[in-house]
Amino acid sequence: MSVRELVVLGTASQVPTRHRNHNGYLLRWDGEGILFDPGEGTQRQMLRAGVAAHDLNRICVTHFHGDHSLGLAGVIQRINLDRVPHEVTAHYPRSGQRFFDRLRYATAYRETVALTEAPVDADGPLAVTGAYTLEARRLSHPVESYGYRLTEPDRLRMLPERLAAHGIEGPDVGRIRREGVLNGVALDEVSEVRRGQRFAFVMDTRLCAGVGELAEGCDLLVIESTFLDEDEELAADHGHLTAGQAARAAREAGVRHLVLTHFSQRYPDPGEFERQARAAGYEGELTVARDLDRVPVPKRR
């Protein structure tokens, strides 16, 4: 059975709190799992959330600040300890190669798994599979940072009522799909395009072109909102977004479900992030993330 959901492993910025672990997010996409920004404590949060090392096919790191990457050492060693039988690919900014190397080999362990390093150094596609295209966009942060976007290919949906109206059934359905026309009936008369689903992951950044490009038309957008709007100047100084900025970006991009995360410990009321996001005009589904939340990718329209 196919499952498409976000499993939230941690939601804190900079330092963990009593209620929020460092960052960590697993996207389940049918039979694959993509782990984003494993901060310190991710391995334990995976256990609490029922996520196994065998569930991981890719690891995507936006940048090498500790709250987004210190968990790499434990996760990589767990992948090897559990002898994950399939290839695991790691994407991360090429400029941080020295940090990745230190984390990958932070301590002695026995390597049993083919971990493929696929560093990112430019905007564009990183992987193309039958199920999705994974691409990256540069963001605006004091250290080099990339956001990630997953796009499912558009597919053709045959329309039973139109097929029946034209007397097309059985093997003829496959024939018109292959050949594009049958007995004067064109394929587009009995089918429609089923738009592929889209997901984006946007962490530490100021507002920039990359934010909009990643978010455009997304069914599910996970985006940092470290600060509240009254601290917009502080957010810009540190290379972050406010709740209102993130919500406006989502509104302008036509996002269906917005997930706000990466919260500063300075704010005691998480409900204020939702209030400011709504005040910014975002009207779609909205989740102010908590550790161990599970957020389904919205069903196709």
What is the topological layout?
Layout: E1 4-10, E2 24-29, E3 32-36, H1 42-49, E4 58-60, H2 66-69, H3 72-81, E5 88-91, H4 97-104, E6 115-117, E7 124-128, E8 133-138, E9 146-151, E10 155-158, H5 160-165, H6 171-179, E11 181-182, E12 185-186, E13 191-194, E14 198-202, H7 209-215, E15 220-224, H8 232-238, H9 243-253, E16 257-261, H10 271-279, E17 285-288, E18 294-296
Parallel strand pairs: 3-4, 4-5, 5-6, 14-15, 15-16, 16-17
Antiparallel strand pairs: 1-2, 1-18, 2-3, 7-8, 8-9, 9-14, 10-13, 11-12
Structure description:
It is a single chain. It contains ten helices and 18 strands. It has 301 residues and is an alpha/beta fold. The longest helix has 11 residues, at 243-253. The two termini are 20 Å apart. The mean pLDDT is 96.
Structural class by sheet pairing and helices: alpha/beta
- How many β strands by DSSP? 18
- Spell the H/E element sequence: EEEHEHHEHEEEEEHHEEEEHEHHEHEE
Oligomer type? single chain
Total count of helical runs of at least 4 residues? 10
Q: How much strand?
A: 25-35%
Low-confidence stretches: none
Radius of gyration: 21 Å
Biggest sheet, open or closed, and with what strands and sense? 7 strands, mixed
Q: Residue share in helices?
A: 25-40%
Overall shape: globular
Tell me the span between the first and last alpha carbons: 20 Å
Strand order of the largest sheet: 6-5-4-3-2-1-18
What integer is the average pLDDT? 96
Q: What's this entry about, in short?
A:
The protein is globular. It has helices spanning 42-49, 66-69, 72-81, 97-104, 160-165, 171-179, 209-215, 232-238, 243-253, 271-279; strands spanning 4-10, 24-29, 32-36, 58-60, 88-91, 115-117, 124-128, 133-138, 146-151, 155-158, 181-182, 185-186, 191-194, 198-202, 220-224, 257-261, 285-288, 294-296. The longest helix has 11 residues, at 243-253.
